[in-house]
Prior knowledge:
Elements: H1 5-10, H2 26-38, E1 39-41, E2 48-52, H3 55-67, E3 72-78, E4 81-86, H4 88-96
Antiparallel strand pairs: 1-2, 2-4, 3-4
Amino acid sequence: xxxxxxxxxxxxxxxxxxxxxxxxxxxxxxxxxxxxxxxxxxxxxxxxxxxxxxxxxxxxxxxxxxxxxxxxxxxxxxxxxxxxxxxxxxxxxxxxxxxxxxxxxxxxxxxxxxxxxxxx
Length: 120
């Protein structure tokens, strides 16, 4: 149907999302590191933008998004870097573990990475 998630959320159409949501998933913390370093979570739409000139890092980001069950698009050429996008589901998951919306340069967030194992 190509209806944006934000519209579905506004109309309370998402009644039964996939539960339980594992907030200890290592992929979620890897995603958080990508977004804290070179990403942006939009406050209004809850979607994610990731900027980096290395296409391999965009591939890793895509793998993390898919492991978390979210939607991914990109990378696309944007000025001198590549940009990729993830849907609001990923933004809400990152917010749940402490990654704030908006600019990370103004407020460098702290995310407790104790759930990550050394072998990952």
